[in-house]
From TrEMBL:
Signal peptide coordinates: 1-24
Native source species: Acrocephalus arundinaceus (Great reed-warbler)
Gene that this polypeptide is encoded by: Lrrc47
Chain residue ranges for the region called Disordered: 239-266
Descriptive protein name: LRC47 protein
Lineage summary: Eukaryota, Metazoa, Chordata, Craniata, Vertebrata
GO biological process: phenylalanyl-tRNA aminoacylation
Feature: compositional bias, Basic and acidic residues: 239-248
Top-level taxon in the UniProt lineage: Eukaryota
Xref: Gene3D superfamilies: Phenylalanyl-trna Synthetase, Chain B, domain 3, Ribonuclease Inhibitor
GO molecular function, one term: RNA binding
Family annotation (InterPro entries): B3/B4_tRNA-bd, Leu-rich_rpt_typical-subtyp, LRR_dom_sf, Phe-tRNA-ligase_IIc_bsu, Phe-tRNA_synthase-like_B3/B4
Keywords assigned: Coiled coil, Leucine-rich repeat, Repeat, Signal
Residue runs in coiled coils: 373-400
Segments forming domain B3/B4 tRNA-binding: 299-475
Amino acid sequence: GGRLPEALLALPLLQSLELSGCAALRELGPGVAAALPALHTLVLSRNALGPAGLGAGLGGPLPALRLLDLSGNGLEALPAALGGTGEGAGDAAPAFPQLRSLNLSANRLRELGPGLARAAPQLQELLLSGNRLRALPGGLLPPAGSPAPFPLLSRLDAADNEVAELGADIAALPALKSLDVANNQLRELPAALADCPRLKEANFRGNQLKDKRLEKMVNGCQTKAILEYLRAGGRGKGKVESAREDVRKKKREKQQKKDNVDGEQDEVEEASKLLVKVLHVSENPAPLVVKVSPGVKDVRAFIVCCVLKGVNLKPGNALKRFLTMQTKLHEDICEKRTVATIATHDLQLVKAPLIYDVQPPDELKIMPLGRKEIKAKDLLRQLQLEAEEQRKQKKRQNVSGLHKYLQLLDGKDNYPCLVDAEGAVISFPPITNSEKTKIRKETRDLFLEVTSDTSLQICKDVMDTLILKIAELNRSALENREGSGSDVELDALSGPGNTNLPLVVEQVRVVDTDGNLKVLYPSKTDLATVSSLLTVIR
């Protein structure tokens, strides 16, 4: 009937829901928010939802929601819950008090109202590319005198719109770090951009600016140089005036260091954040691709992969801490492997291309970590006996965590596996990795894999957390100089006094058998869940 099945409304503990690419979905139906109060991730992209169809379902608050994706629905206006027409009183409680990421890309929005700032006060990422917006921030910001809007908004993406005016009130966003207004109709850039205290990345390409020198700069210079040019007044300022402005700037900075202790602390915290650089597929001469066979859909449908380079596991007990971290993630965020499973491989030992496939239990062979080569059905039998023995020794009534994830393959005619170019199985989720690609102290580059039979978003959330934890361990090794005889190697990696070099995350494409893209990680919207602890250079 064009709406969500009523059975979904009987799942009050549901935390993540994705329903995308369904042209028949025109409305959520009434009471979705009230029925699913635990939702933290809601992805409804590429459907046929309009503001009316969304309004009934999102009519109540979703207090736990952190990510909302409504991209590709042809929305011409926001639903009332997000501050659209018919919004409630300004003093009403926020409908989405924990919302961090809102994706409204690829719709038909012409304007946004100030109600969004009240509905989602903790928003950190707002994606608006591919709409018909004509002004920015436009009506997004409430009138002067109102409480500061979007105090945490660090990323604003409004590329490929019809924006002809970028207002000076953009400087009212105190946390803005990344601004993308590429391919719009801008003729000028406001000098107030230079007053955005945290702005580090800005994309103004594809706009026909009046100031031709500035237009050249936006196509070839770093953001810092562009902001300096705007601060100096742009075209018409001579070298003498620019030099004077530089002197005044240095005086201001000196005064700020004396007077603004809080500001200093912010800079220290920013500098101490972990760094990760994303290498895009287009920049990678030999990107890794994983091909997915149709059979996995009925066994373990979701997989996300990436490459992480620059890891150091040599010093001290770094490798042991790495393996302990992975075990803790399996226990916590992966819920004892029942919602997702992590696999980590030494990239140098991975023979590409890779195929995510299924094989019958009596045909699938793997050399599990610490064991000899064995058929999958025999391995499961061994593990089940070990789990039962463990249960008896500990005198528990319930089966152990080990036994719990073994049950995920019960009744399956085929088992999921990741196969390399030589036909060897290097991963058998959710059970084990292969000894063939085992990580060692000498490992520098990793191939990371997360699989799930629950949802794609869970894979991405787990991968986000995994990368964050590896970055934390890596910097800890560099800072502490663990173990004897490791200083020379660490200095060679980090340079003298520099313990904050970024790890490099290479995008990995997951495609179907015809080569059509299924997943690209990390995409622009990924790593948002850990953005408060991780600076991502894209």
